[in-house]
Amino acid sequence: EVQLQASGGGSVQAGGSLKLACTYSGFTFGDFHIGWFRQAPGKEQEEVGCISSTDSSTRYLHSVQGRFIISSDSAKNVVYLQMNSLRREDTAIYYCTAVPSGGSSWCWGMPDYWGQGTLVTVSS
Predict the structure, then answer these.
(1) Which of 22, 71, 97, 121 is the most interior residue, by most CB within 10 Å?
(2) Three-state SS sequence of 24-50
(3) What is the DSSP letter of 65?
């Protein structure tokens, strides 16, 4: 059974940093791309970034490019989302997700599996 759990959320001032962790089970990293989505109050969900299971390439939402970094530790079954230079508009519930790679390196797009989210609040 595929399971994902995001953790590490909290409150931080604008300009600060947080590191989220996505702990997964039921599959190996080599078979599933891992993504991060977020949903802010009153807004639609949006994909923040993803990491490919085939070549570890990463892709990011334009507004977080250069501030957020996704990395993986397959030995620990964890994928991280390092968030730097946080802005108030980054306030949201963050979810980690998974989708079978099917041999493709393209990780962006709607996932098949969602974990429970973790709340990030950025204050000015």
Answers:
(1) 22
(2) EECCCHHHEEEEEEEECCCCCCEEEEE
(3) T
User: C-alpha angle with apex 19: 89 to 62, nearest 5 degrees?
Assistant: 45
- Give the C-alpha separation, 30 to 43, whole Å: 32
Closest CA to 73 of 65, 61, 81: 81
Q: Quick: pLDDT tens for 22-67.
A: 999 999 888 999 999 999 999 999 999 999 999 999 999 999 999 9
The β-bridge relationship of strands 118-123 and 10-13 is parallel
d(CA 86, CA 90): 6
Distance of alpha carbon 44 from the chain centroid: 16
